[in-house]
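Me: I'm a chemist; would you kindly supply a protein sequence with its structure tokens?

Assistant:
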Amino acid sequence: MIWDDFLNSEWHDWRGSGKYEDRLLNPYQLQSFMNRHQFLVNLPLDQEDIKYLQQLRSFLKEFVQYIVAGGTSPGWRIEELNRWMSEELVLRELHSNEEGNYTLSFRTMNPGLKGVAADIAASFATTLSEGESTRIRICDNPDCLWIYYDDTRNRSKRYCDDKMCGNLMKVRRFRAKKKLQSDTSDG
């Protein structure tokens, strides 16, 4: 999804080194994001444009934190999300293929940074409107904080990646338990 890829442009080292990177400031990472989602934007962005995207990211991150915490009355957040989406007009087009299947596509009328922001906001709004907000998660590893969509059947995924953060947290719990046992047997 576009929105979670965008939110994770704020990267934290999941191993706990304290390293942090705002990938919106990294021209290669930003270009990669734009290419992945087929956004047509002239790069590099100036500081004002980067600040604009950072504001959207901060807003969406706060909205995700609100949802993950169990918030049920989004109030002003809905108005703000609608404001971000209204930044760009969208043309809807219906297409059919030779098998008789139909697809609906959306094309921004004036591609650019505001269109990118509107598409990111719309991606998040689509997830919410499809009733999938309970699948939005923040990794339980406090050093990671990766935002992801839990696509498991029973909706019980706790870590962005079981092989990285999941294993790391199991090792940390095991070591803490051993240390506690060691401390109680010594005392």
In short: The domain at 2-158 is CATH 1.10.3300.10 (Jann2411-like fold). The first strand starts at residue 10 and ends at 12.
